[in-house]
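pls design
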């Protein structure tokens, strides 16, 4: 029986050498260590052996059993490692490969500037108020102190529509009267942002559409100093503490007195260059004290109330800040331009 156990061990170990994967190993276990395996039959027969024979055979049978179990466990571990190595080989991932770039959306330069402007005025207590882009002649001109045939209307080349008296607003100023009529008799401090349209010969400096941000305050004892202070503060917040500004007398039918504000040319620092056409200054907005006629048209008594207004062009500010040489870039949707912001 001892030779039989040697034989069992030898056969089983030989068979194990050819079991390649976990399934084969399980089959091997059933054949060589299972219920009806030759080894188990030896255990079954132990009881029939004589007292003298039993200890030696029993010890040897247990030895063989442990040897086979040990060999199988080793083989199982080996086959698992092989499988892992194989899968690492075939599903190889190169972590040093550069990632695939994916296109990232971004905000249009006008939107970026508009949002800066909103924030600056919000910090100063201005509310944003939107009014219509399709306006009436009455709001766009008449209520702003420009009766029909007033020569100042020539300052705005206008898109008219097929409906008489309906036009695309040429500026955000008509919103002033709309706001006043809604807020009367409350004091007012608003900005009016939005798109404006002009029937222009398109050039590097002029396009048929552009944004404006109008500002309007109405209240008691509002003075020209308030206007200067607010716009000076705006320029500092927009262009930096060191910016130099100046106000120049100007004319608008809806303000009296009227002015334009210039900032010092950032390119030549006031010396004069191509960007500022030699003057050292860049105009960024028009402004003034709201004309008594306009206040009255809005419902406010100019004897009691006063106010200031201003209108600025975000594209113009963006052109200055980012040195954009041609306003047409803003609405031609050329990604090579837009992706620079
Ligand atoms: N609406 C004027 C324009 O488009 C700009 C402007 C000037 C607005 C003076 C104002 C102002 O509110 O007070 O040219």
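designed seq:
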């Amino acid at each position: 029986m001892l030779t039989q156990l040697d034989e069992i061990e030898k056969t089983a170990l030989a068979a194990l050498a050819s079991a390649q994967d976990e399934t084969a190993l399980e089959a091997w276990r059933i054949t060589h260590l299972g219920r009806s395996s030759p080894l188990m039959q030896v255990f079954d027969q132990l009881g029939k052996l004589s007292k003298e024979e039993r200890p030696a055979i029993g010890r040897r049978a247990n030895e063989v059993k442990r040897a086979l179990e040990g060999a199988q466990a080793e083989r199982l571990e080996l086959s698992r490692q092989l499988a892992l190595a194989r899968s690492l080989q075939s599903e190889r991932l190169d972590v040093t490969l550069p990632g695939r770039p994916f296109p990232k959306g971004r905000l249009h330069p006008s939107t970026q500037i508009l949002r800066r402007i909103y924030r600056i005025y919000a910090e100063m207590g201005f509310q944003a108020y939107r009014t219509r882009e399709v306006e009436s002649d009455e709001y766009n001109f008449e209520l702003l102190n420009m009766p029909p045939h007033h020569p100042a209307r020539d300052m705005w080349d206008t898109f008219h529509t097929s409906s008489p008296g309906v036009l695309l607003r040429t500026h955000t100023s008509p919103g002033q009267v709309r706001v006043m009529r809604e807020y009367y008799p409350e004091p007012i401090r608003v900005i009016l942002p939005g798109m404006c349209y002009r029937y222009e010969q398109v050039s590097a400096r002029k396009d048929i559409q552009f944004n404006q941000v109008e500002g309007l305050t109405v209240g008691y004892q509002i003075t020209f100093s308030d206007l200067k202070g607010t716009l000076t503060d705006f320029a500092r917040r927009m262009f930096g503490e060191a910016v130099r500004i100046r106000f120049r007398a100007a004319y608008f039918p809806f303000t009296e007195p009227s002015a334009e504000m210039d900032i010092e040319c950032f390119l030549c620092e006031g010396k004069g260059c191509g960007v500022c056409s030699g003057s050292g200054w860049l105009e960024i907005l028009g402004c003034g004290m709201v004309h008594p006629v306009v206040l009255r048209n809005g419902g406010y008594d100019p004897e009691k109330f006063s106010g200031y207004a201003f209108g600025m062009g975000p594209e113009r500010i963006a052109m200055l800040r980012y040195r954009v040489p041609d306003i047409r870039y803003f609405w031609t949707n050329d990604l090579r331009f837009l992706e620079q912001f």
